[in-house]
Amino acid sequence: MTQTITCSAPGKIYLFGEHAVVYGESAICCAVDLRTRVKAEISDTIRISSVLGDTGIDYDKYPYVSTVIEKMSEIADIKGVNLHIESNIPVGSGLGSSAAVTIATIQALNMLFGYGLQLEDIATLGHSIERKIQGAASPTDTYVSTMGGVIMVPMKKKLDIIDCGIVIGNTGRFSSTRQLVSNVALLKKHYPEIIDPILSTIGKISITGEELVIKKEYESIGNLMNINQGLLDAIGVSSSELANLIYAARNNGAYSAKITGAGGGGCMVALTRPSDVGKIASAISQARGEAIITKVTEHGVKVEN
Length: 305
What we know:
This protein is an alpha+beta fold. It has helices at about 65-75, 95-115, 120-135, 140-145, 175-190, 190-215, 220-235, 240-250, 275-285; strands at about 5-15, 25-40, 45-50, 55, 80-85, 150-155, 155-160, 165-170, 255-260, 265-270, 290-295, 300-305. The model has no long low-confidence stretch (mean pLDDT about 95).
């Protein structure tokens, strides 16, 4: 039996559809070349380590990894394993850090202990874990992290890779997905006649955007992303920090700039001409954001050794 294995899974950005996707509306999401790596080694005890510290099962410090171990132990008991986590995906930023660590951990344990889980099984288990921890979670993040590429959900349709420039701007402000999803649910409960059409329109933007993604019409994609951002503002999930970075990118020639993920802090994403990524990154930095230049990746969860 293999004694050590390392698996990695990517983060993601939304072109369209966050929040609306929680209610079954369409969304388009892309895996990006920022990854979380989990090294798993057979041991006599269960240990989890990262920059956050070294511990055993710990649902406060490592809720996702601890829950993966719990769930997979229900299939076959895990006597002992050392898990070491490294990531270049900012936590609580809307880039799918929780999905990436969940999926990478599932695959590492799957390969190390021979569970025989296929990719669809991994995505399904990952979603159940996110839903348990967050209260309400779309299957999108875990599915995209598992499969890679550009995915239209909920139909799980794989689209062609987009090849324009992508610049992420991180506000550095942590946001709670669970709290933001809860806030939108409360608005929906109190004002269904207003919020339901907004969420439905976000879904329609994704459906319209599918053909534009296939045709690689990036300026038109950008127009729809900017409209999507206005609707996200309307349901209260933006922030002044995000707005500063969004307008810094737009004002310097980006096709589009919008929140990616739950909002409230975390990250925005700009689509731009490949030749302009440096200029957009500089504008985001000058607006006091951390600029991350990246690209879409076809590779989902994978073994690295």
